[in-house]
Amino acid sequence: MSGLRVAGVSKAFGSTRVLDSLDLEVTDGITAVLGPSGCGKTTLLRLVAGFLDPDAGTIAIGDRVVAGDGRPVPARSRRVGYVPQEGALFPHLDVTSNVGFGLPRASRRGARVRDVLDLVELPSSVAERYPHELSGGQQQRVALARALAPDPSLVLLDEPFSSLDAGLREDTGRAVARALRASGATAVLVTHDQGEALSLADRVAVMRAGRFLQVSAPSEIYLRPASPDVAGFVGHATLLAGTASDGTATCDLGRVSLLTDVAGAVLLAIRPEQVSVSPGASDGILADVLDVSYFGHDATLRARVCGGETVVIARVPAGGVPAPGSVVCLRVSGDVLAFPDPAAS
Amino acid sequence: MLGVLVAATSLLPLAYVVVSSAQLPPGEAVDFLFRPRVGELLWNTVRLLVGGVALSVVIGVACAWLVVRTDLPGGNLWHGVLAAPLAVPAFVNGYGWVSTTHAVQSFGGAVLVVSLSYYPLVYLPTVAALRRLDSGLEDVAAALGHRQLATFFRVVLPTISPAVLGGALLVGLHLLGEYGALQILNYPTLTTGILAVYRTTFNGPAATLLALVLVVFCLLLLVLELLARGHRRRARVGAGVSRTATRLHLGSGAWLVVAGLAGLSVLSLGVPLTSLARWLLRGTSTTFPAGDIGAATLTTLGLAVAGGVLATLAALPVAWLAVRHRGPLATAVERSVYPANALPGIVVALALVTISIESFPAIYQTLPLLVLGYCILFLPRAVVSVRATLELAPPVLDDVARSLGCTGAETARRVTLPLVLPGLGASMALVSLAVSTELTATLLLAPTGTSTLATEFWSRASAVEYGAAAPYALLLIALSVPATLLLSRAANRDGLRTPASAVLESVS
Q1: ipTM value of the model?
Q2: Which end of chain B is more exposed for a tag (fewer CB within 10 A), N or C?
Q3: 3-state class of B168 per DSSP?
Q4: Which of B324, B392, B400 should be substituted to probe chain A, the one whose Cβ sees the most A Cβ atoms within 10 Å?
Q5: Could you tell me the pTM of the whole model?
Q6: CA-closest candidate to residue B179, choices B454, B476, B463, B392
Q7: Closest chain A CA to residue B402
Q8: Are residues A161 and A56 in the same domain?
Q9: The predicted structure's pLDDT at residue B110
């Protein structure tokens, strides 16, 4: 079987504990490890690739334990494809030699190289070029082709799109995901960009300070976050304290209906798109508009509830964007996520 | 471990000067240092330093600005001409002038000749800095209502000042260590004084004391440069920026500027080269000692290659530590190599002579000691260029190679070596070329009977056999041309880092 099993893995650098008894099971498809920079996600990747050895716990790739059980298997024998940030193509080799680097000598310039270049949707005209003659997106695709060429059972991608500009990032991301799916390899993609994680991966593992907060499908992560932390990080929800009973809760935005059945002191996670904004209406909570970010397809605004400290983020359609400084009326529509308030218990 | 050994070796001369001076009875030392003769040497050294550095900076910065930022007729041709004096060793330049007119055997003459030899050390880093400078800064200044001249003094000069200061420091250190040119110009300084004392008393405390004074001067210069640089940050623009600045239109003044530059190159290149050509014709019409020249050339090449290889090999562990194992120890090792950069050849040579006589008599007056001397002298140069080379092979490439199934040895053969070999070769060449024209340390350390191009030239030139010296001078210039080309090309190019450009950057 292909896949990756990480069990109870810990790693510390000096006195800094980077990974804290981490568990992760990946069977197939693309799994994104999503977290802010410094949360330990790159360390996890380097442990799996074999560039580092864990202090505790075991790592298994397929059926083989590669670390934590006797001598760790060296990186060169793990059959793991590795795509680092910015590609890291060998600057002295052309595209063909880069892609063929991990193949046996006889097949380094053969059909396999052409096949994987096809797989990552690169024209054969780039085969003779050198890395400095390629665009950033092309370099990234060649780096993936190089990782896929020896037919690894597992491919690791370390923030592969962070050096690309926004337009290119989306195209390259989709092409890379297509190639990974077509190759049938299991992939672990490390990223700090939630859009990237949610759109490309089959499963998302949200990581914070060396631990996983939640590992689920993208829609599950977004719609049913396991904790207020995940809700705040994925989807920029505003967290408000409130009191719940009988499926509704009262908070600074009035009475809202709840998605989950809790009672007592709660933290409500209200997403920007759940807050509707109407200028001059009388039905709702009055708030001062602090600032507006206009994106074209829509806009987000920050508003402070009149007479209070609560600041709410709301998304409004491009047509009716209120001016900063004006007073608007806020209403929460739809059911809201609620978590038992950790501060209250 | 190797790195620590290399660092300790390169600190040896400095330690020697300090320790052996400290062992002298203080009264005796003070008596010696307050002799009128020593006072004269000090005064001569200081005014040469001030005059030579000032003149080099004025020439260097003005030329750099003219070449990079104006529509000078002839354009890049001038860059080659202005960098070319670097290929004429200072003592050959001195010989060219003295054999033309004895008027240069004075303070003014000495300042003129050494400045003509050393201004490229300011010119080249300044050109490189001006090319790197983001022209956006100037556009902003112009948009804020500054005239071109005001922009130069308020924006451009402060931004390139680290490069200019670095160049000035280098000129100062070269002036302090210069022996050949000043001896032939009959202008006594601390360095020529040390050699004179050494010749008469052989390794007495007097030579050591003068060496200590010289070292103090060098360290003072380093401190002065650090203070002048202050906390100013170097303006570094991203590698991708390649905006070309609008060049100043010289208009009708262009021909005046061209005439000035032509005059400068007549002084810096014309005079020594014509004089050389004249002596070459006159000298070789009588006898042409082909055998002697051949032997000296072979010895020089052998020493140059040995010095280049040894210095580059010694630089490898130091640079590797600095690039791959950053930490307090690595930094300490790397830093401890650099003081040797400020030590004049004469101090290094004197230290090695004494240490070998006192502790290792077997290697005194041997070629290995001479090569060790070269190695210490030029190690800083080798370290900066090897370091720039190793940075071409970042660790992530090793990671990728290992994940693709390579063992350590395979990674070295297929990734690391192909990436660093060209750079190591260039670094070796840079050191070798410097070794081949080195005079001062060679005079002290070369075993009796060993003749190099520089020592053969020197023995003839100082015996006023100008004609016989000419062929050696020609070969010395020929040996200096490749390094000059490397450095002047590195200064003129923006973008790719090469070992030569790293040597230039280490100046700024």
Answers
A1: 0.78
A2: N
A3: helix
A4: B400
A5: 0.75
A6: B454
A7: A76
A8: yes
A9: 93
